[in-house]
């Protein structure tokens, strides 16, 4: 038997659902202000040859068909690039080998029921189509055709696809804007973060060709916000999620430095701070959070920052180089900023009200291990205290005074004491907001007002993983999925959100991965070695594992995420006992943890956990 893999150029792809019997894109109908309107994807003739240029094609022998068993993946090298060859349920599939998000090797990820999950940040891709099914990231994988002939495996691929390792889904283009009233739009998206951008892109991917307007208080087009604290010297154009040309090509209008001050839900009008008014048919609220400021004396002193924009991050790096830095708050942002500045600043001090960093999120034992790592990298902690005063000299920060009486030298202060939802403009709107300021939505990201949706950090929504408990999950990955679900339901698809939360933090070249929702956990079961920063932590509530975190044990978190996504329950007893057959033959903890991970990854079921498997 012989296997051949052939790239399908994305621009020419057409799924069966998008095609009418005559081979042209089927127009869809969407009601605009009560009037039925047709829109469709750009029509292209079906190409008999998927390659524009035969010289761009490479073909190479890879392996024997029997070299891969069901459930196995292999990276194969074609000389000018690699592909990921997969065998599942007796069928071969081939897609790009790198996650389009940050380039993780997918061969080290998790294969489960027709999709592969990234080992780093949890994005999921359909192995048959290459389409992205869970986030983070915007692009899908290139899909390669597979042919089986004789006993050798060949891959035939476009050199360009092998080099880019990403594919942007085909999208509709907006009809002529000249026919629009500038003060009226079909879809208005308030906020230009991950939720807003994914909503706009999903609408276009589904063939929606009416007007879409995004507005943001920021001066930039949508960018990779997590990098503000992880890669602080990045310039806006380096972390842009899409180039300017993308927005022009697909008719997604972005109004920068524009703040919505109020929403009139009765007349479907958004009122901007400068008095401009815009009518809408569908509204998405994706305003995210606003950082909390300090309330102490001297809070207006110069060189005190909340990291909100690329300019903030760049300014902090410049001012902190070879200077004294004080960071207030051992939040994810505060800890990541401390890690980034540790090698650049003369000194880094971190002030925190709690006894241990991340105690409420990762638990005390993991928090102490992380704290020890920071201390070994010259970060000084001042715990269980707060800032009482910021002192200045000639208008600039000089000292940070703590309530404990300690006085810290400081040229720069970064505040990371949490955030509040940016929903103040909705208080009189009639849109349901809870006591903490979060917009309340259902599983379809709908608010209590017809045609009004909300997504991202500013919402509470029913989390399927926790029996539909209303939660707020301010994760980058979750914001992507919120935006997609909102867009599909604007088009009446009836899709409900069911994704498993997934996040990561990066410090000193190491990452902690986390999946699930551990709020209210009552115990932590740890396998591995915290001192070596090589561990897996299971967060339990009563008898059930509700979340998992790991460091240096990829892809265990992605594997657990797949188990949870399948609706299966992991019991506390399954992860806390080390006397099962899979642990008995090895001595030290790190070895046991490796076997734990290995069996989890290889079996795809829970039998080995309970001691009933082999």
Automatic annotation (TrEMBL):
* InterPro entries linked: FAD-oxidoreductase/Apoptosis, FAD/NAD-bd_sf, FAD/NAD-binding_dom, FAD/NAD-linked_Rdtase_dimer_sf, Reductase_C, Rieske_2Fe-2S, Rieske_2Fe-2S_sf
Q: Which GO terms describe its biological process?
A: execution phase of apoptosis
This protein's source sits in the domain of life called Eukaryota
- List where in the cell it is found: Mitochondrion
GO molecular function terms noted in the UniProt entry: 2 iron, 2 sulfur cluster binding; metal ion binding; oxidoreductase activity, acting on NAD(P)H
What's in the keyword line of the UniProt record?
2Fe-2S, Apoptosis, Electron transport, FAD, Flavoprotein, Iron, Iron-sulfur, Metal-binding, Mitochondrion, Oxidoreductase, Transport
User: A Gene Ontology CC term for this entry?
Assistant: mitochondrion
Tell me where in this chain the Rieske domain is found.
60-155
- What task does this protein carry out? Induces apoptosis through a caspase dependent pathway. Reduces mitochondrial membrane potential.
As for family, the record states: Belongs to the FAD-dependent oxidoreductase family.
Q: Which PANTHER family does this UniProt record tie to the protein? A: APOPTOSIS-INDUCING FACTOR 1, APOPTOSIS-INDUCING FACTOR 3
Provide the protein name.
Answer: Apoptosis-inducing factor 3
Gene name in the database record: Aifm3
């Amino acid at each position: 038997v012989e296997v051949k893999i052939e790239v399908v150029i994305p621009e020419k792809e057409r799924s069966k659902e998008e095609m009418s019997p005559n081979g042209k894109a089927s127009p869809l109908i969407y009601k605009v202000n009560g009037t039925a309107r047709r829109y469709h994807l750009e029509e292209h003739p079906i190409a008999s040859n998927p390659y524009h240029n035969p010289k761009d094609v490479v073909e190479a022998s890879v392996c024997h068909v029997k070299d891969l068993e069901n459930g196995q993946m292999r990276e194969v090298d074609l000389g000018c690039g690699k592909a990921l060859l997969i065998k599942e349920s007796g069928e071969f599939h081939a897609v790009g080998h790198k996650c389009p998000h940050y380039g993780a090797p997918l061969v080290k990820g998790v294969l489960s029921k027709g999709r592969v999950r990234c080992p780093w940040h949890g994005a999921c891709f359909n192995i048959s189509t290459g389409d992205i099914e869970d986030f983070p990231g915007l692009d899908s994988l290139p899909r390669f055709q597979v042919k089986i002939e004789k006993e050798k495996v060949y891959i035939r691929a476009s050199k360009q696809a092998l080099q880019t390792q990403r594919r942007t889904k085909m999208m509709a283009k907006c009809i002529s804007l000249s026919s629009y009233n500038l003060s009226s739009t079909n879809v208005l998206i308030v906020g230009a973060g991950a939720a807003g951008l994914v909503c706009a892109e999903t609408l276009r991917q589904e063939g929606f060709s009416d007007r879409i307007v995004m507005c943001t208080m920021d001066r930039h087009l949508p960018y990779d916000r997590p990098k503000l604290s992880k890669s602080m010297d990045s310039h806006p154009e380096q972390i842009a999620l899409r180039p300017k040309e993308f927005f022009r090509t697909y008719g997604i209008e972005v109004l920068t430095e524009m703040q919505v001050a109020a929403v009139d839900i009765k007349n479907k009008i958004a009122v901007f701070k400068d008095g401009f008014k815009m009518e809408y048919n569908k509204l998405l609220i994706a305003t995210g959070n606003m950082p909390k400021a300090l309330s102490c004396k001297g809070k207006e002193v110069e060189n005190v920052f909340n990291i909100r924009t690329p300019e903030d991050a760049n300014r902090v790096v410049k001012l902190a180089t070879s200077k004294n830095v004080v960071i207030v708050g051992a939040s994810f942002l505060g800890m990541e900023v401390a890690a980034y500045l540790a090698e650049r600043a003369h000194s880094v001090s971190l002030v925190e009200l709690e006894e241990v960093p991340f105690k409420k999120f990762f638990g005390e034992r993991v928090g102490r291990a992380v704290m020890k790592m920071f201390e070994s990298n010259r970060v000084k902690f001042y715990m269980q205290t707060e800032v009482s005063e910021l002192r200045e000299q000639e208008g600039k920060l000089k000292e940070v005074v703590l309530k404990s009486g300690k006085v810290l030298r400081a040229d720069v202060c970064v505040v990371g004491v949490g955030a509040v939802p940016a929903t103040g403009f909705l208080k009189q709107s009639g849109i349901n907001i809870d006591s903490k300021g979060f917009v309340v939505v259902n599983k379809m990201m709908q608010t209590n007002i017809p045609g009004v949706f909300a997504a991202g950090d500013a919402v509470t929504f029913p989390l399927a993983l926790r029996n539909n408990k209303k939660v707020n999950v301010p994760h980058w990955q979750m914001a992507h999925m919120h935006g997609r679900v909102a867009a599909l339901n604007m088009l009446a698809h009836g899709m409900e959100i069911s994704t498993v939360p997934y996040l990561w933090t990066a410090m000193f070249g190491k990452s902690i991965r986390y999946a699930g929702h551990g709020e209210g956990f009552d115990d932590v079961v740890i396998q591995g070695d915290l001192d070596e920063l090589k561990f897996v932590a299971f967060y339990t509530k009563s008898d059930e594992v509700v979340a998992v975190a790991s460091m240096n044990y990829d892809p265990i978190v992605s594997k657990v995420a797949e188990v949870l996504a399948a609706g299966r329950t992991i019991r506390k007893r399954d992860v806390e006992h080390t006397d099962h057959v899979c642990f008995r033959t090895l001595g030290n903890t790190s070895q046991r943890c490796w076997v734990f991970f290995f069996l989890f990854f290889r079996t795809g079921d829970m039998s080995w956990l309970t001691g009933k498997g082999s």
